[in-house]
């Protein structure tokens, strides 16, 4: 199955894509730990079935030093012992913020309270934006049928210029 469209090969798509990337870059440069960012992006991408995004975030996290054990257990984080309480709070928020269309009641007060125990206001702001942005990216990838497997780390680094 081929991709339906290369958004970056389209003038409007590339213009919007560059701005989308710059928002993501601002999140990446925030005080939210990069490890947490990687785990959250991977988990949301798994839930949304975006093969391209799972490929990207797995390879980027591995390149940043994330272990294969932790990457393999993200999908079953509740049933594993390798994540910190702070990471578990972020993963719970990511899941609840991602499953809004699944008749989920939204983000629970309990999850929000756990997030507030582990992160400051700036980190929470970055985390909320991260969850929104990865969900948008997942939808883009699924709509145009971007397939996983061909991503090379840092292949979009020139978008930051």
TrEMBL record:
Q: Tell me the superkingdom of the source.
A: Bacteria
Q: Which Pfam families match?
A: CMD
Carboxymuconolactone decarboxylase-like domain: residues covered: 19-96
Q: Which NCBIfam families match?
A: ahpD_dom (TIGR00778)
What name goes with this protein?
A: Carboxymuconolactone decarboxylase family protein
The source organism is Actinomadura napierensis
């Amino acid at each position: 199955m081929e991709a339906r469209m290369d958004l970056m090969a389209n003038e409007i798509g590339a213009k919007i894509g560059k701005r989308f990337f710059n928002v993501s870059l601002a999140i990446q440069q925030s005080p939210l730990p990069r490890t947490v960012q990687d785990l959250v992006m991977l988990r949301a991408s798994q839930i949304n079935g975006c093969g391209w995004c799972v490929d990207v975030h797995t390879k980027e996290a591995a390149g940043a030093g994330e272990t294969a054990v932790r990457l393999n257990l993200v999908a079953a984080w509740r049933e594993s012992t390798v994540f910190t309480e702070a990471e578990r709070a972020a993963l719970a928020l990511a899941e609840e913020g991602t499953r809004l269309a699944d008749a989920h009641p939204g983000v629970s007060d309990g999850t929000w309270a756990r997030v507030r125990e582990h992160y400051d206001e700036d980190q929470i702001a970055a985390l909320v934006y991260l969850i929104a942005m990865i969900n948008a990216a997942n939808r883009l990838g699924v709509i145009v049928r971007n397939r996983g497997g061909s991503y090379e780390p840092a292949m979009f680094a020139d978008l930051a210029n």
